[in-house]
Design goal:
290 residues; seven-stranded mixed β-sheet; five-stranded mixed β-sheet; 8 helices; 26% helix; globular
């Protein structure tokens, strides 16, 4: 029995004949899934999206690199040569540090102050120019080595870097609107808020239920001094209007909306039936390119 299974596969017909030299590859890995998307660079259009779910790994990060290796070895599209490959890796160990306070030699100490980082993790940093900060994270070294082996020109980022950049982009479309961006992952939520071009807050929380999601959202709003009935919530991720999670949120928040797709890019018609808020973190990796 395989330890992963194909959840979704969306391939534009042109994917089969376009040269990978005119494309960019984006890969997103967390402890329960492996996703990748392909962007036609000439048309600035996403033409492929594939998602695998991991099975029976009990959330243990130690086995993810083995599953990722199997998927890469079995997927022809992942074995092609691309001029640009961006890999987003999710891990629970990450923290933002203002750029003026950042010292590269002390990066690991920032993590150790907040987390008990496993010994097999390697410290990684992402500069996020939009907020003048550095995202410091701990990533499993075997996973980093895996992608370095397969993709010589890969750019590695923490998945939250893509989410922050997506939230910033959505905010700057209408910077006068105060909105709490809520990205719902499979086992986590990320909450981001800007005022003008300034980041007001960013928090990530593990969630096991819709009640957890509501609790942490209310907790963050309370700490901003705002009222739930007066704040705009912009939803992204795997959450839909007909879901129990959305209905629960609607009991507490009057202003709920879904984020649109990032209009910086074009999208194949094969994605038309996918809700635009889905896969925002994967598509947003294109904002973190080389």
């Amino acid at each position: 029995m395989t330890a992963y299974h194909l959840q979704n596969r969306y391939l534009d017909p042109e994917t089969s004949h376009i040269s990978s030299y005119f494309c960019q590859l984006f890969i997103l890995v967390n402890n329960i899934s492996f996703q990748y998307a392909i962007l036609d660079s000439d048309k600035n259009k996403f033409i492929a999206l594939v998602e695998y779910d991991f099975q029976d790994i009990s959330g243990k990060l130690g086995s993810i690199h083995h599953l990722a290796e199997e998927i890469i070895s079995s997927e022809e599209l992942l074995q092609k040569k691309y001029p640009s490959v961006v890999v987003g890796i999710d891990s629970p160990y990450h923290t933002l540090v203002p750029l003026p306070l950042f010292d590269a030699d002390q990066a690991g100490k920032f993590l150790d102050f907040n987390f008990r980082v496993p010994a097999d993790n390697q410290t990684h940093t992402d500069l996020i120019e939009e907020i003048n900060a550095v995202n410091i994270s701990g990533m499993q070294k075997e996973l980093l080595d895996l992608f370095s082996k397969h993709y010589r020109r890969e750019s590695l980022v923490h998945s939250s870097t893509a989410i922050i950049r997506a939230a910033y982009w959505h905010h700057m479309v209408d910077p006068g609107m105060s909105c709490l961006f809520l990205y719902a992952g499979n086992q986590t939520i990320d909450l981001v808020m800007f005022e003008g071009s300034k980041l007001v807050l960013f928090n990530s929380f593990p969630v096991k239920s819709k009640e957890d999601l509501l609790y942490f959202t209310l907790f963050v709003i309370e700490n901003t001094g705002q009222r739930p009935d007066q704040i705009q919530i912009c939803l992204g991720g795997m959450i839909d209007e007909n879901s129990d999670t959305y209905r629960l949120l609607a009991q507490y928040f009057k202003e709920l909306s879904f984020v649109p797709r990032l209009s910086t890019f074009n999208y194949s018609a094969i994605f038309d039936h996918i809700p635009p808020q889905h896969y925002q973190d994967l598509f947003a990796l294109a904002l973190c390119g080389l």
